[in-house]
Amino acid sequence: MDAHSSVFGNYSTINSPKTQCYALKPVAFSSSKQVLLRTHLSFPSNIAITEKRLRIRASVEEVHSEIVGPNVLEDSVKVKVRRKNLAVFVSGGGSNFKSLHEATVNGFIHGDISVLVTNKPDCGGAEFARDKGIPVILFPKVKDGSVLSSKDLVNAIRSYKVDFIVLAGYLKLIPTELIRAFPRSILNIHPSLLPAFGGKGYYGMKVHKAVIASGARYSGPTIHFVDEEYDRGRILAQRIVPVLPNDTAEELAARVLHEEHKLYKEVVAALCEERIIWREDGVPLIQCKENLSLYK
């Protein structure tokens, strides 16, 4: 069945019995040179397009799709978004922080770590930040022993034009003032499948020991948004790690940490690319990069 195109103002519509799609420019069709276009807009499979490149402007964003051959799309739809500024909070060695930093440098994450916050000025994460030229803020105390208030912390982070805050092994409760200043913009990672083995007192190796002692067959990292209680914010992503029959806490911790590094990079990348949406009931979802109509 043939597809038909018509123009309404600046928009062209593509009509078929199955679907309707919109583009800013009229689209020409020819039966002599057929190329199937597959994007999240769900075009009908029988539409033939002769243009080498289709440019769609939706709202204020530009979307580019390049067709490289019959039935092949070289890249998924790419949306131009502003590069984001990140603040990372650590209390220890900062392995997740280092992993995230590497991902910002190699382009996997469309953002930059603008500042590090720590309660331990000599921890491995703080040393790494200084080596990379990343400013370090000490909270809750500064070097001379004077108290840095929650309001001061908020102002300090805002001075770096931070878009999102990422907790990576930070063992202090986040001040209410900071949570209210950055709503739905603070992420934490926890080494168990929340809501199990979470809350005050569950951190580090204590989590893995508790998992093994419980007889649980599965564990793994959870990434969640931060609210005013330990480990109670909305869950965004999880990854399952099996608990083996003869696991030690150290062995389980190593496998969970391996998945933490991968999952955190993927989630922060989605955050910076504005691929996190909120369902009406308040549940956050991650859109797939390859097809924005699907969710991870």
UniProtKB/TrEMBL annotation:
Pfam families: Formyl_trans_N. Pathway: Purine metabolism; IMP biosynthesis via de novo pathway; N(2)-formyl-N(1)-(5-phospho-D-ribosyl)glycinamide from N(1)-(5-phospho-D-ribosyl)glycinamide (10-formyl THF route): step 1/1. SUPFAM superfamilies: Formyltransferase (SSF53328). Its main location: plastid. It is found in: Plastid, Chloroplast. GO terms for biological process: 'de novo' IMP biosynthetic process. It catalyses: N(1)-(5-phospho-beta-D-ribosyl)glycinamide + (6R)-10-formyltetrahydrofolate = N(2)-formyl-N(1)-(5-phospho-beta-D-ribosyl)glycinamide + (6S)-5,6,7,8-tetrahydrofolate + H(+). The keyword Transferase applies. GO terms for molecular function: phosphoribosylglycinamide formyltransferase activity. The keyword Repressor does not apply. InterPro entries: Formyl_transf_N, Formyl_transf_N_sf, GART, GART_AS. One of its GO terms (cellular component) is chloroplast. Residues 84-268 form the Formyl transferase N-terminal domain. Its EC number is 2.1.2.2. Keywords: Chloroplast, Plastid, Purine biosynthesis, Transferase, Transit peptide. Belongs to the GART family. NCBIfam families: PurN (TIGR00639). This is Phosphoribosylglycinamide formyltransferase, chloroplastic.
